[in-house]
User: Fold this.
Amino acid sequence: MSPFIRDGDVITVAPPPPGREPGAKACGIGRVVAFVNPDSRRLVVHRIVGRHEFRFLVLGDNARGMAGDLVNPDDVLGRVVRIERGRKRVWLGLGPERYAVALLSRAGVLLPVLSRAGTLTRFLRRRHHESN
Assistant:
């Protein structure tokens, strides 16, 4: 799930609200969810990038060129509501921008876009420091 969730980050997963099914609105497009892969029976954390009939299309943010997996709502344990990196809370990727992240991830262009944005940010910072 890099770049939004990195190795060593601590995540908090909230179960679906009581009385609601796992596939309810709490697990919409762009949400990062934890689920059990039915084939490997391993815990996986991916972003919901679409829906197909009654299942979620999920994909890791760093999964360039992959088609994604279809997950049944019953396999979803909950959604990621908090990310901590070095005792600091990470917000990026969980707020309203999650829709854009899901769209870019599904299109397979998330990492190239973030890489270019990082290059532009570093360039602008350098120019700002040189002018002061």
In short: Helices lie at 98-107, 110-131. Residues 10-131 form one domain. Residues 85 and 107 are 27 Å apart (CA to CA). The chain has one domain: 10-131.
